[in-house]
Amino acid sequence: MSASDLIRHGTYNLFNLSKPRTAEEKERYWHLVEATRALGVHSLSVQEVLGVDAEEAGQVLRQFAVDTDLICMTAPNPRSGAPAEPAIAASQHGHLDMDGIFRGNYHVGLLWSPEIQPVPGGWRAYNGLPDFWHAMATQVLDFGGTKLKVGSFQGDPFRPDWRFNEARRVVSAYLTQSGVLGGDYNGLASDLRAGRRFRKFLMRLWPCAGPDYYDPEPYTRQNHGLLEFQIQWRGRRSRRPKADRRAGEVLRRQGLLDAAAVASVPWQATCGHWPGDVWGLRRIDTNRVTRDVAPAVVFHESVLTDVTRAAADHLPVVTGVDKTRIEHSEKNS
To answer: pLDDT tens across 284-306, in order?
Structure first.
């Protein structure tokens, strides 16, 4: 595989990114810039871009794009006549910061390197409400002759039932196109480890064995109020809590596969390093690929460095796709 055949796609929760005001915020902003530059990605899904509306969040995204040497402007739509705009999808949810100031809602966005071209008419913003608690953004990008739908998504952090239904809306956007979706899913995946066929055989013999999930159970020894947003209903508090994976099951079953499980790489956390985190090490950030892209996944990693640890409460994740190995199906024609 030559370097020109590799597509590097990343996803990064930027942790309340807004226009920096204080010296501390400016320092963290430049940590984010440095971390993003070091990823060397061709495309990047980002979450938690703050603004009171999409226009303000778009200004934040445009400045971040300039500082990271990336692009975020979509192509004009020849059918509708819509002009180019920042690739930002609007959310209707936000909250006050530690100083009691409203910094804006949590939007999601997309960026790409200058040599990658946005396809005219390939942009769509799935704005929050009624579809999502946060939002989803998708843009068809031309990676030198290979066109993929690239998306950014952030799941509902508080309601497992809504997260479950959001997943159905997510997969509807990828029914007819090949692509990759990066996101902070705010929940664990249901994808299985390599050798899952043998595990399924064992489950038929001994149902108590349970599925061999790629992500181990992180909550069984935890007992705090926030668990209610992440676990299955227990009935009795004495029962060990298990992660609610229904949203992840919808995504997996409908063909948006977790690139980490596809690549069968050693498990790596994306959260748990930030001071004050009550969840411990867990993995809720990943890139998901459509079934025809899955055979082309050649690597997947969470990027843990001193800079990424200092920049945000989530680590960036990068997936490598060999575009010569994408299984072109009818939906790509």
So the answer is: 999 999 999 999 999 999 999 99
